[in-house]
Design a protein that fits this description.
By secondary structure, the chain is α/β, with parallel strands linked by helices. It has one domain (14-286): P-loop containing nucleotide triphosphate hydrolases (Rossmann fold), CATH 3.40.50.300. The protein is 37% helix and 12% strand. It is built from twelve helices and eight strands. The chain has helices spanning 18-31, 46-50, 62-67, 72-75, 92-98, 108-114, 133-141, 159-172, 192-207, 229-237, 241-244, 249-266; strands at 5-9, 36-40, 77-80, 83-86, 122-126, 144-149, 178-184, 219-220. Strands 3-4-2-5-1-6-7-8 form an eight-stranded mixed sheet, sandwiched between helices. Helix 6 runs parallel beside helix 7 (133-141). The termini are far apart. The relative contact order is 0.18.
Length: 308
């Protein structure tokens, strides 16, 4: 049975750097000797295409993993030393409908991860920009959540619903789940708005410190991923910033983020999640609906003066 450290990289808002972070943080960690598996759980298949993998229905991928009991290792595509990708296809969008009546549908990915002895040190899951069944599978399988956030006021608006969902998943299905940290992406150094939003987010999470919320120990990464055109160019070359332009700000930032990530989390072996101790509690069909018997109040997310 596998107990690989599994991290969901998620934000229900699109365009905040989820895929870019999954790809380039994973590559930076691989360059530091970690064996990393990247799971593309987004039907748009941007992570898959980033590596030049053709999104084809003839290749086993996440759709087969979720709907046909295909083992992860059978769907795995080796990219380079220490990097493996589990690809996606657009058919993955249909999985939510096909699995609507399946028992334990929120835990399928977790089952696939734990049923094999996997050779990875870390699994990073690139989640879709929604809080549907695919994201619930990621949260059920993960021990931690990383939230990429663009330092704009509107980027904060979905944070409360995301944290509410994380809280609900931890209470109902994955008692070890926690928000590990927030990564600021597409950061514009020197702008007043960026600094104010960072301070708002820092104060919000600091107010939860010491409590029992899943985000009470969240780490606000000091490393900022600066807006960098080289990061946007990488997918058209089928590679990561580490190889495409190792001297760019994007490469520097993700290397620094990987250093900070290892220092904050991976090096602390006492914090490692033992997947075998997870309580096997099945989430009800109305987990995020009005029928939930124990509604979770949305957290009070930061309110910025820019909204005035």
């Amino acid at each position: 049975m596998s107990c690989v450290r599994t991290i969901a990289i998620t934000n229900q808002k699109g365009g905040v750097g989820k895929t870019t972070t999954t790809v380039n943080l994973g590559a930076a960690l691989a360059g530091m000797g970690k064996n990393v598996c990247l799971i593309d759980l987004d039907p748009q298949a941007h992570l898959t295409m980033h590596f030049g993998i053709e999104a084809t229905t003839t290749r086993a991928g996440m759709y087969d993993v979720l709907t046909a009991d295909t083992p992860l290792t059978r769907a795995a595509v080796g990219i380079e030393p220490n990097i493996t990708v589990i690809p996606s296809v657009i058919d993955l969008a249909a999985a939510e409908v096909e699995l609507a009546g399946a028992v334990g549908r929120e835990q399928i990915l977790r089952d696939r991860i734990t049923e094999e002895t996997l050779p990875y040190d870390l699994i990073l899951i690139d989640c879709p920009p929604s809080l549907g069944l695919l994201t619930l599978n990621a949260l059920a399988a993960a021990s931690e959540v990383l939230i990429p956030l663009q330092p704009h006021f509107l980027a904060l608006q979905g944070l409360g619903q995301l944290l509410e969902t994380v809280s609900l998943v931890r209470r109902r299905i994955n008692p070890t789940l926690k928000v590990a940290g927030v990564i600021f992406c597409m950061f514009e150094t020197g702008t007043r708005l960026s600094g104010e939003v960072v301070e708002d987010v820092r104060n919000f999470f600091a107010s939860a410190s010491g409590g029992d919320a899943p985000w009470s120990e969240a780490h606000i990464f000091k490393t900022r991923i600066r807006r960098n055109i080289k990061l946007a160019e990488c997918p058209s070359h089928g590679t990561t910033i580490r190889h495409y332009d190792p001297s760019s700000h994007g490469a520097e930032d993700y290397a620094a983020l990987a250093d900070e990530f290892l220092a904050a989390f991976v090096a602390d072996s006492a914090e490692q999640t033992d997947r075998e101790t997870l309580v096997d509690v099945r989430m009800p069909a109305d987990v995020v609906g009005e029928g939930d018997a124990e509604p979770v109040a949305p957290p009070a997310v930061p309110s910025h003066e820019a909204a005035q």
